[in-house]
Amino acid sequence: MSARIKIFDTTLRDGEQTPGVSLNIQEKLEIARQLARLGVDIIEAGFAISSPGDFMAVKTVAENVKGPVIASLARAVEKDIDRAWEALQNAENPRIHTFIATSDIHMKYKLKMTEDQVLERAVAMVKYAKKYCSDVEFSAEDASRTRTGFLYRVLEEVIKAGATVVNIPDTVGYSMPDEFGSLIKGIKENVRGIEKVDISVHCHNDLGLAVANSLAAIMNGATQVECTINGLGERAGNASMEEIIMGIQTRKDFYGGLKHNINTRQIYRTSKLVSKLTGVHLQPNKAIVGKNAFAHESGIHQHGVLAERSTYEIMTPESIGLTTNRIVLGKLSGRHAFEERLKEMGYNLSPEELTKAFEKFKDLADKKKNVTDRDIEALIGEKVSEVEEVYRLDSFQINSGNKVIAMATVSMFKNDELLTEAATGDGPISAAFRAIERTVGFEVHLEDYSLKGVTEGADALGEATVRVRKDNRIYVGRGVSTDVIEASVKAYINAINRIIHDHGKDTSGGRETI
């Protein structure tokens, strides 16, 4: 087993492939900076050739995030590698990550290539990437369903060609832990030159075994694990970074004191940030970071924990950065106390961002007696979700009941111009959304709407998330307020502003032209 395991985070690439998730450049940069604070070794910032937006995201992260290696995915094709390097060239520590499938089923039906052709392409593209970048990772896509003899041959040849990392993906989540561990052991024992490179694994969760397979791989010699925050990813997702790390951390006895570079006290902060920006909420019983992960309702459990926490807690909430309020914040709290609380929670805001956050805090504190950590997380989460506010809410009025048609009147500022529209709907939220659409002059399709309480009690903050579709693209809008309708209206306006930001504004002074 390696003395230290490297964490390759692919939240910004594979994680963003989660259906319904679409992050803008500002959001990706915010996540990347938090991943650097978390201590990940490699950040896969995107798939540069896949779209202009992905290219700019990789380029922006490469130019602005220092410390971790910054990687871009590229197929085993010259133009992909050229584009990846164009995006990565200003990174402090760049890596080109190229891949080609090696299983019989992929070669026959997807690539329509023979084994010799795949081998030749893999070697040629590693050499091609090596001209740009000393750090080159090669992935044998669908490795877990590849004939081991051919897999050994491919890995041996790409190592000779200059690969510094060879990645063994369980692309469709097919393997069992013992089986996947044996595959890694076989690679260590049979591939010449394997001691010169990192053995990486990338496990998918189709059978719920991504973390188990990753840990089995570590036990058998893997030195790098590819994973995502909250297990985000295509289909059932990827191996969850927080589960892998806390498994190693909690069971040091089992893993022989295996080292890693992760600051575990940043785990909860990172999880909440990713959940908020992607709009993918965690199930309450999610391991490590779920709402109930450190909750005890059973009387027997409560008694045991009060007597000795280790009776039912194998790790502490503090170990992942989940703290209780040590300073009670309310409407009489000052800026200094607020700033100190943010620092304790792992937030590092600029003076301008701090001023805006404090103003939001004071507004909220006027509405509720005590402001909790989760309230603050919701307020700060709005900061990284901001785009230019072409439209901003002034006021709204709702007339609704079980025997009347719901009507909403919404007033919004566009620059200094106050615009007001009214509309009816199936309910107060529907009516408000239609009034907003009438104001901006275009319609969108509402794909999903969710509302949840950020905290408990009658004065709890409500957090609304909407997913809307415009021109076959999904936009996520968010809003928080102690008034659930206001939170919903703010979320819809946030989504509208995102659409306008992507499409450009009509500067003629009229309604938006999309």
SSE order and pairing:
Elements: E1 6-9, H1 25-38, E2 42-46, H2 52-64, E3 69-75, H3 78-88, E4 94-101, H4 104-111, H5 115-132, E5 136-141, H6 148-161, E6 165-170, H7 177-190, E7 198-203, H8 210-219, E8 224-227, H9 241-250, H10 267-278, H11 299-307, H12 335-344, H13 351-365, H14 373-384, E9 391-401, E10 404-414, E11 417-425, H15 428-440, E12 445-453, E13 462-470, E14 473-481, H16 484-503
Parallel strand pairs: 1-2, 1-8, 2-3, 3-4, 4-5, 5-6, 6-7, 7-8
Antiparallel strand pairs: 9-10, 10-11, 12-13, 13-14
Helix pairs in contact: 1-2, 1-10, 2-3, 3-5, 5-6, 7-8, 8-9, 10-14, 13-14, 15-16
Characteristics:
alpha/beta, TIM Barrel, three-stranded antiparallel beta sheet, 16 helices
Question: What's this entry about, in short?
Answer:
The protein is an alpha/beta fold. The chain has 16 helices and 14 strands.
Structure notes:
The chain is an alpha/beta fold and 514 residues long. It has 4 domains: 6-278, Aldolase class I (TIM Barrel, Alpha-Beta Barrel), CATH 3.20.20.70; 292-322, no CATH class; 323-384; 391-503, 2-Layer Sandwich (Double Stranded RNA Binding Domain), CATH 3.30.160. The protein is 39% helix and 20% strand. It contains 16 helices and 14 strands. The termini are far apart. The model is unreliable at 506-510 (pLDDT under 50).
The oligomeric state is single chain
User: What's the overall geometry?
Assistant: globular
What characterizes the major β-sheet?
A: 8 strands, parallel, barrel
Give the uncertain stretches in residue-range form.
506-510
CATH topology of the largest domain: TIM Barrel
CATH architecture call of the largest domain:
Alpha-Beta Barrel
Q: Which strand order do you get reading across the main beta sheet?
A: 1-2-3-4-5-6-7-8
Distance between the termini: 56 Å
What's the CATH class label of the largest domain?
Answer: Alpha Beta
What is the count of distinct domains? Answer: 4
Helix content, binned percent: 25-40%
Mean pLDDT: 89
- Beta percentage is 15-25%
By CATH, the superfamily of the largest domain comes out as Aldolase class I
Structural class: alpha/beta
